[in-house]
């Protein structure tokens, strides 16, 4: 189970705007629009904050998190944030991606 938040920052790395937040305790993909024109995104930064929590803390737990940014159904250059591995109880995740014109 986990909680997450996504933010969009301007090209100067300032003025974060929350795009989405939620809790995921299933295998259903959560999907959110960025709702900003593609030409405005050049240089902007997407940040992901997540917290994965084990239902039962123990050695051998594993987690997997994937964030995919698509435009018109196509994955953007550098648009995949993926992390996976072992954890016992709680795992904090933070990732940043800067949008660049293809």
Structure description:
The protein is mainly beta and 102 residues long. The chain has one domain. It contains one helix and six strands. The protein has one helix at 38-41, and strands at 2-9, 17-24, 45-53, 61-71, 74-87, 90-98. The strands form two sheets. Strands 2-1-3-6 form a four-stranded antiparallel sheet, with no helix packed on it. The protein has a two-stranded antiparallel ribbon with strand order 4-5. Strand 1 (2-9) and strand 2 (17-24) form a beta hairpin. The longest helix is centred in the middle third of the chain and has 4 residues, at 38-41. The termini are far apart. The model has no long low-confidence stretch (mean pLDDT 89).
Strand content: over 45%
Distance between the termini: 35 Å
Quaternary assembly? single chain
Main pleated-sheet profile: 4 strands, antiparallel
Main features:
single chain; 102 residues; mainly beta; four-stranded antiparallel sheet; two-stranded antiparallel ribbon; 1 helix
Structural topology:
Layout: E1 2-9, E2 17-24, H1 38-41, E3 45-53, E4 61-71, E5 74-87, E6 90-98
Antiparallel strand pairs: 1-2, 1-3, 3-6, 4-5
Summarize the structure.
With 102 residues, this protein is mostly beta strands. It has one helix and six strands, in the order ββαββββ.
């Amino acid at each position: 189970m986990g909680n997450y938040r996504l933010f969009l920052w301007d090209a100067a790395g300032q003025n974060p705007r929350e795009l989405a937040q939620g809790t995921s305790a299933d295998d259903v993909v959560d999907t959110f629009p960025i709702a900003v024109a593609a030409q405005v995104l050049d240089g902007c930064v997407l940040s992901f904050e997540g917290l994965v929590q084990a239902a039962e803390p123990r050695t051998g737990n594993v987690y997997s998190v994937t964030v995919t940014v698509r435009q018109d159904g196509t994955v953007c250059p550098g648009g995949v944030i993926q992390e996976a591995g072992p954890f016992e109880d709680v795992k904090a995740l933070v990732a940043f991606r800067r949008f660049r014109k293809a």
